[in-house]
Amino acid sequence: QVQLVESGGGLVQAGGSLRLSCAASGITFSRYGMAWYRQAPGRQRELVATITSTISTNYADSVKGRFTISRDNAKKTVYLQMNSLKPEDTAVYYCNANINDLAHITYWGQGTQVTVSS
Fold first, then answer.
1. ∠ CA(109), CA(68), CA(82), 5° rounding?
2. Which partner from 12, 55, 62, 66 sits 20 to 30 angstroms from 85, CA to CA?
3. How far apart are CA 4 and CA 21, in angstroms?
4. DSSP of 52-110
């Protein structure tokens, strides 16, 4: 059974920092691309950051220079370090694992709430 369990969300003031973690089980973690998405109330889910199995990273323009995605294959965990947080970063953040293996396979976590107060 595949599980992605996020943690680290919470309430923070603007300008503050949070680090999200996503612990994976039930998959060969090192083979999967990992990503963080977010969804604010009334808005579509959007891609925040990705990290491939070869440690290539990519970021949404809105978070470049403020957020850093990383992974620890030994711990089967992906992280999102979020600095200089803004109220518009408020959203539920979701962890995603994905792989192209004959078919595209993707898994989601349950989400963790991040609230940035002004």
1. 75
2. 55
3. 10
4. -TT--EEE-TTTTTTEEEEEETTTTEEEEEE-S--GGG-EEEEEEEEEEESEEEEEE--
Torsions phi, psi for 63 (to 5 deg): -120, -5
Residue 104 CB burial class (10 angstroms; 0-12, 13-18, ≥19): exposed
Q: Structure tokens of 116? A: 């940035």
β-pairing, 18-25 with 3-7? antiparallel
Residue 18 DSSP one-character state? E
pLDDT-derived band at 89 (thresholds 50, 70, 90) equals: very high
